[in-house]
From TrEMBL:
<dbReference type="InterPro" id="IPR012969">
    <property type="entry name" value="Fibrinogen_BP"/>
</dbReference>
<feature type="compositionally biased region" description="Basic residues">
    <location>
        <begin position="10"/>
        <end position="20"/>
    </location>
</feature>
<protein>
    <submittedName>
        <fullName>Uncharacterized protein</fullName>
    </submittedName>
</protein>
<feature type="region of interest" description="Disordered">
    <location>
        <begin position="1"/>
        <end position="20"/>
    </location>
</feature>
<dbReference type="Pfam" id="PF08017">
    <property type="entry name" value="Fibrinogen_BP"/>
</dbReference>
Length: 417
C-alpha cells in the first residue's frame, strides 16, 4: 500500500501537466473498453491493470510484472476508499482524479451502455498529446482564418459580380459607331486573337518575375481589401440598375440594326459555324471547368499541386498595389472594348437579337468568372495548405475545443458523482 501510494503521488503532478487538455487516445480507449466489461468477472483484474496504466512505462512494466497477481479486489477497494476524498479535494481537475474516481463502485454503475458507446464514439480519434495540443492550436487558428476567408470570399464575389456588371454595362454604353466602323475585320481579328493573348501573357509574366519575391501574404491581403473597397465605393455608386438596363437595351438595339444593314457578304461568310461554335464552346468550357474546380474540394487539391502554382501565382503576384489600379483600368478597358467590338462585329451577323444578347451575356459571364477566379485563387493559395489541413483535422477531430472541454467537464462531473 505505501509503495502504491508513493508512486501515485509522485506521478500525479506529471500526469496533470501532460494531460491537462484532455485524455489521450490510448487512455480514453482503455478506459472505455474496460468500463464496458465492468459487469464481468474479470473487471477487478482490468481495474488493476488500468490503475497501473497511469504510470510511466518503466513503472508500468515493473508493477505489471511484480504486482499483477497481488493487487486484488481488497487492495483496490481499500486504496479507493482511503484516497478518494483527498484526491477529490486536491486533484479534481486532473486526469489522476478522474482515474481514481473511476475505481469506485458508483462510477462503475453509472457508466451504462449508452454512456460507454458515446465515450467510444467521442474518443476513438487516436492522437498523442503532442499532436492533440498542436491540433488544438491550429484548430483555433483555422476557425478564425476560415471565418475571415468566408467573409472575404463572399464579399469579394459580390463585389466582383457587381463590378464586372457595372463595367460591362458602362463599356457597352460607351461603344459608338465611330469605334465600331474604324476597326476592320483583320484589325479586329489580330487585336482579339494575337494582341490580347500576347498582352495578357507578357503582362502577367513580367509582373510575375518582377514581384514574385516581393509580395507577402499580408501585403496581398491588404492590397486585395483596399482594391475591393475602392472598386466598391467607385462603381457601386456610379450606375443604377434602371439606367443600365435602359441604356443597354437601346444601345444593343441600335447596334443590331446598324450592323445588320452595314455588313457585307465577306464579313458574313468569314464567321463560319466552326468559329462560332469554337468561340462559344471555348468560353463555356472555360467557365465550366474553372468554376467547378474552384468550388470542388477534390479539385482544389489538384489545382494546388499542379495548376495553382503556375496560374494562381501569376494572378496573385501581378495584382499588386502599384499595378492593380493601372492594370484594372487599362487592361480591363482594352479587353472589354475589344471583346465587345469583336463580339459585336462577329455576333451581329446572322443572329437574332435574342441570340446576340445570349452570346454577349455568356462572354461577359466568362470574363467575369475568370476575373473572379483570379481574385479567388489569389486568396486561396496563401491559406490552401493550412486551411485544407485544418479542415481535415477538424473533420477528423469532430469537436471544437469548447465542445471538447464541455465533454471533459461533463465526464468529470459524472465521475465525481
Amino acid at each position: 500500500m505505501r509503495h502504491q501510494q508513493s508512486l501515485t503521488m509522485r506521478h500525479q503532478h506529471s500526469r496533470t501537466m501532460r494531460h491537462q487538455h484532455g485524455f489521450t487516445m490510448r487512455h480514453q480507449q482503455s478506459l472505455t473498453m474496460r468500463h464496458q466489461h465492468s459487469l464481468t468477472m474479470r473487471h477487478q483484474h482490468s481495474l488493476t491493470m488500468r490503475h497501473q496504466h497511469g504510470f510511466t512505462m518503466r513503472h508500468q512494466h515493473s508493477l505489471t510484472m511484480r504486482h499483477q497477481h497481488s493487487l486484488t479486489m481488497r487492495h483496490q477497494q481499500s486504496l479507493t476508499m482511503r484516497h478518494q476524498h483527498s484526491l477529490t479535494m486536491r486533484h479534481q481537475h486532473s486526469l489522476t482524479m478522474r482515474h481514481q474516481q473511476s475505481l469506485t463502485m458508483r462510477h462503475q454503475q453509472s457508466l451504462n451502455m449508452r454512456h460507454q458507446h458515446s465515450l467510444t464514439m467521442r474518443h476513438q480519434h487516436g492522437f498523442t498529446m503532442r499532436h492533440q495540443h498542436s491540433l488544438t492550436m491550429r484548430h483555433q487558428h483555422s476557425l478564425t482564418m476560415r471565418h475571415q476567408q468566408s467573409l472575404t470570399m463572399r464579399h469579394q464575389h459580390s463585389l466582383t459580380m457587381r463590378h464586372q456588371h457595372s463595367l460591362t454595362m458602362r463599356h457597352q454604353q460607351s461603344l459608338t459607331m465611330r469605334h465600331q466602323q474604324s476597326l476592320t475585320m483583320r484589325h479586329q481579328h489580330s487585336l482579339t486573337m494575337r494582341h490580347q493573348h500576347s498582352l495578357t501573357m507578357r503582362h502577367q509574366q513580367s509582373l510575375t518575375m518582377r514581384h514574385k519575391q516581393s509580395l507577402t501574404m499580408r501585403h496581398q491581403h491588404s492590397v486585395t481589401m483596399r482594391h475591393q473597397q475602392s472598386l466598391t465605393m467607385r462603381h457601386q455608386q456610379s450606375l443604377t440598375m434602371r439606367h443600365q438596363h435602359s441604356l443597354t437595351m437601346r444601345h444593343q438595339h441600335s447596334l443590331t440594326m446598324r450592323h445588320q444593314q452595314s455588313l457585307t457578304m465577306r464579313h458574313q461568310q468569314s464567321l463560319t459555324m466552326r468559329h462560332q461554335h469554337s468561340l462559344t464552346m471555348r468560353h463555356q468550357q472555360s467557365l465550366t471547368m474553372r468554376h467547378q474546380q474552384s468550388l470542388t474540394m477534390r479539385h482544389k487539391q489538384s489545382l494546388t499541386m499542379r495548376h495553382q502554382h503556375s496560374v494562381t501565382m501569376r494572378h496573385q503576384q501581378s495584382l499588386t498595389m502599384r499595378h492593380q489600379h493601372s492594370r484594372t483600368m487599362r487592361h480591363q478597358h482594352s479587353l472589354t472594348m475589344r471583346h465587345q467590338q469583336s463580339l459585336t462585329m462577329r455576333q451581329k451577323h446572322g443572329f437574332t437579337m435574342r441570340h446576340q444578347h445570349s452570346l454577349t451575356m455568356r462572354h461577359q459571364h466568362s470574363l467575369t468568372m475568370r476575373h473572379q477566379q483570379s481574385l479567388t485563387m489569389r486568396h486561396q493559395h496563401s491559406l490552401t495548405m493550412r486551411h485544407q489541413h485544418s479542415l481535415t483535422m477538424r473533420h477528423q477531430h469532430g469537436f471544437t475545443m469548447r465542445h471538447q472541454q464541455s465533454l471533459i467537464m461533463r465526464h468529470q462531473q459524472s465521475l465525481t458523482m
